[in-house]
Structure formats: structure tokens, C-alpha cells
Design goal:
This protein has about 190 residues and is α/β, with parallel strands linked by helices. It has helices spanning about 1-10, 85-95, 125-135, 150-155, 170-190, and strands at about 20, 40-45, 55, 70-75, 95-110, 140-145, 160-165. Helices cover about 25% and strands about 25% of the residues. The protein has a seven-stranded mixed β-sheet.
């Protein structure tokens, strides 16, 4: 997440950015300190109240607590493997991102089962790029940390990272993209109702 911040946001440290962290509860640390710029507003979102949680979501699939187009940056680290229907959550990320907004997702590609409360998925770069495409987002980079860094705890996960952007394709194509995401969202949530 530090690499994402340094590569994509350092030049924007004087802009008033709204940063949403999906799955922000401080279980083994948080990203708040990375995004505490003078003009940045970090907001932690999670399913349960706790340390580093500013907004408790009623569901990971319908963020009524967050306005459409209200976030400049959405981040999520080590949460997507615990979300049963992560593709619906990705549609919500696309909905709340402003045009031109950035998203960074970090999730393991391997490692042991770690229920919190469930452990459903592992991710590779192609899967993350497909997820971005599904949500009408443009992939900027998708990588997996395959090399060991000398930290046995971190190295077992071989985290994958997706950085994507909500593109500005012009008024008409942006509108079509919103409609397509709306249809995808409702088609995928029918069974959850």
C-alpha cells in the first residue's frame, strides 16, 4: 500500500482527496497513517465497529452510507479474500469512485486458511484485471509479489495488487457505463434479497 501511495498519490498531497478504506478494522494494523496528508480525508469502512472504523456498513454489497461519486481513492488491503461476493463489492467501489478516481486492492494469492469470519478466495493478476474490467474500471497495474522478502509471515501470502482507475470516456459513454454497472449489480444481487 505504501508503494501505491508513493507511486500514485505523492504528487497529489496538496489536493483535498477523500480516501475510503474497505475492510479498515485494525486487526493487524491499518493504513490510516499512510493516508494522513494535510488535505486528505481518510475514512475507514467495515462490517463491524472497532478500531479504525469510521463507517459501519450494513452490507458489503449495498453501501447506502456512501454517496455515488464521492471518493477520489478507494483502498482495500487483505479484505477481499473474506468477502463472499467480492465482484458485487467491486461494483460498489466503482459506484462510489469519482470519474478519474483510483482504486488499490491488495489480497493474497496463497497462504493458509484464515477465517475472519470466512476465508473464500485467493487472487492472481489476471483475476484482478478481470474484476476491474467487470466493474468498468481501467487496470493500471496488476501484480503478485512472488519473490520472498525475508519475512516468513508476509511471504507466505504472496500478495497480489490491483491498481485501477474509473476512466473518463466522455459523458455518453460514462452514462452507459453507469447503466451497465447498475444492471450488473441488480442482476448479481437478486439472490441476496
Amino acid at each position: 500500500m505504501t508503494a501505491f501511495r508513493d507511486r500514485y498519490l505523492c504528487a497529489r498531497e496538496n489536493e483535498p482527496l477523500r480516501i475510503l478504506d474497505v475492510g479498515s478494522q485494525d486487526v493487524n494494523g491499518s493504513y490510516r497513517h499512510l493516508f494522513s496528508g494535510n488535505r486528505w480525508k481518510y475514512t475507514g469502512l467495515d462490517m463491524t465497529a472497532g478500531s479504525n472504523v469510521d463507517i459501519v456498513l450494513s452490507t458489503p454489497y449495498a453501501w447506502r452510507e456512501v454517496e455515488s461519486g464521492s471518493a477520489d481513492v478507494v483502498i482495500s488491503g487483505q479484505a477481499f479474500e473474506h468477502i463472499q461476493y467480492f465482484w458485487i463489492t467491486m461494483l460498489e467501489i466503482a459506484r462510489v469512485l469519482r470519474t478519474g478516481g483510483l482504486c488499490c486492492i491488495i489480497a493474497p494469492s496463497s497462504g493458509p486458511e484464515h477465517r475472519y469470519p470466512t476465508d473464500c478466495w485467493r487472487f492472481y493478476p489476471d483475476g484482478l484485471s478481470s474484476l476491474a474490467q467487470f466493474a468498468q474500471l481501467e487496470t493500471l497495474e496488476a501484480v503478485t509479489q512472488w519473490e520472498d522478502l525475508g519475512d516468513a509471515v508476509s511471504d507466505c501470502w504472496h500478495d497480489s495488487m490491483l491498481v485501477c482507475r474509473k476512466p473518463d470516456r466522455g459523458r455518453w459513454l460514462n452514462f452507459q457505463g453507469r447503466i451497465r454497472c447498475w444492471i450488473q449489480y441488480h442482476a448479481n444481487t437478486i439472490a441476496l434479497r
